[in-house]
Each structure stands twice: as structure tokens, then as C-alpha cells.
Amino acid sequence: MTDELRVAVDRRGPDGAVLYTKGYINNVGGEEIANRAYEMMDAGVRTLLLNLRETKIVNSIGISILIEIIEKMIDKGGRIAFCCLTPVILKTFQIMGLANYASIFADEESAVSELGLK
Fold first, then answer.
1. Domain membership of residue 10 as a residue range
2. Largest CB tally within 10 Å, which of 75, 87, 88, 102?
3. pLDDT of 3
4. For the chain, how many structural domains are there in total?
5. Interacting residues of 27 by C-beta distance below 8 A, sequence separation 6+
């Protein structure tokens, strides 16, 4: 469970991006996601999709960092979404309220279509 988190970025059009995560989202992993997300926001991204297909666990600190990312994106007038969540992560996001402020999609294809990412 202490896998180092890796993040890959796929820029989509002038104002969209997909972040792919692999590993455990804890304080270190969450900060890595935040750094990449903030870089994208500063570069004009206003639609951000986080694909968590290769992430199996998120701890409470990771959740709090994701909430900060959501808040910053909302402050910038953008939107953030998640896709490919495990059942445990989906339930955690629902309990912690992330689902109230970010869209959640079963797969990347439906997320990309709904969000207008190319």
C-alpha cells in the first residue's frame, strides 16, 4: 500500500486535461496530484479528469488534498471529474462528499464524451 504514486498528464484541447494516477493516494501521492493539477490550472485548464484506474486506495489525507483541488478548480470557474474508481474509492468519495462537487464516471470514454474532452 505504500506504492509511490505516479501521475501522467494528457492535455486535451486548449482547456482540458486527463490526469492518470497509478499507486496509493496518501499525503505524498496527493501532493503529486495537486502539483500536476495546479500546473494544468495555471496553464489554462478548466476541465480536469482524474482517471484512477490504477489507484486502489486513497487515505484520508489524500481525500483532503483532492477536496482542495476541487475547491481551487471551482474557484477558477472550472470543473473536475473522476473516472474508473474502484467500488471502495467510489463509496469513500460518496461518503466524504466529493461526489457532490465533482462528476464521477464509470469509464474514461463516457467521461470524455460528457465533458467535451477530445
1. 6-103
2. 102
3. 61
4. 1
5. 59, 61, 62, 65
pLDDT tens sequence across 19-50: 999 999 999 999 999 999 999 999 999 999 99
Query: Cell 483532503 sits at which residue?
Result: 64
For the record, the C-alpha cell of 22 comes out as: 497509478
11 assigned to some structural domain:
yes
Q: Please tell me the distance from the alpha carbon of residue 52 to that of residue 26, in angstroms, as a whole number.
A: 13
Query: Which residues are paired to 48 by β-bridges?
Result: 17, 80
Question: What is the number of residues in the chain?
Answer: 118
CATH, residue 91: 3.30.750.24
As a whole number of angstroms, the distance between CA 69 and CA 49 comes to 12
In terms of Cβ atoms closer than 10 Å to its own Cβ (0-12, 13-18, 19+), residue 38 is middle
